[in-house]
Amino acid sequence: MCHRCGERLKGYVCTVGDRDLTSEVPDEVLAKIISMLPTDDGIRTQTLSLRWSKPWQLATLNLDDRDLHPWRWGDDLVELITSILLSHPGPARRFSVTCLSRVSDAQGDRYPSIANWFQSPALDKIEELCFCYLLRTARDPLPPSALRFTNLRFASYGNCHLPEDLDEGISFPHLRKLTLQQLTNTESTLHALLSACPTIRSLFLVDNKAFRKVRISSPSLKTLGVSIEMWELVMEELIIVDAPIMIQIITFVFLPIENMTAISSITFLQAVKIFSISATGFQLSVVMDMLKCFPCLEKLYFTSMAKESGDQLNGDPSIECVLTHLKEIVLRNYRGRPEDVSFARFFISHAKELKSMEFRVPFPYDKQWEVDERRRLPKLKDRASKIARFKFVPGTFFKHFGDRHFTHDLSIYNPFEI
Asked: How far apart are the C-alpha atoms of 196 and 201, rounded to whole Å?
């Protein structure tokens, strides 16, 4: 008995398995499947049969050059992207180009081709855009047409120079997440972009060395991330003028403590519940100066980037969030040095609502080391919170370059749970 058609096998040849079962699937369903595939796999479906040509045309385009890069690169990749945008009628949901430099050794300036891509009708309704030159030379321009998409919900621009006249005509009414990485513009470009994003929720600024005096004013912004490399020029000021519903601030600032970016606010940020800061050592005074801005803070993530001991400065136990709200603290690169212990002891002794403190240690250790470290913490009778629990985690060294890119989605509840 044939298991496919139920007929007796003697003298019978079953042809059920030879049928193209996809012919029974509606084009719209196949198009939905194709739209969920990586770019290269979606394109390859056309080679299966003529049956797949129409579904590919109907599928929402998801074009990411990283999917194409393994089998096309350089000028060939440029030609392939051009071909896809010419052959696909749209709409596209996502367009990401991060594997190409502006200039080709063989064909010269790629800017005209890139500008033509952004003018393609297939991209008219894209919701996600990521564009970053692979290598940056002086002021590599971003085509103005890259700023024309009013349906964007996520946008990321990197290694480029945005047009200077942004006050004229740009609008991102639906944009929720914006990342700006290694731009050569000044902070005035950022201010203009924020003004064009009335519903923005998340802003990530990565190594924009010409952003010197940044002022954040956005009634809709909930999460702010700032990263500054230690070899970059310093962001002199970060002033939060008006952000009434901001709940999370993440900073990656790797500079000598005396040159560290100043974060301040015109009014106290009552809504901020989560604050992450990285600095050169467990410098308590720096953290306390910043905590004054966040009276209702509940979660503090602190990362030390120093391998050598530094001076331990005193903290102010009267800061409101320490006394009444702080519940969770994560200390990364905790090594058990005197200033590390003093930093932890301060919060254990004064944070009345503390529920947990996690010590992430950048090396493996034995059980006796952890026992000795626990003994250096305040005894139960000396703790401000009697219910606080302490957890030591080995081998969790904070790698700046890798970890900060895992936080591109700043909406993650704990940005360092990777």
From this structure: 13
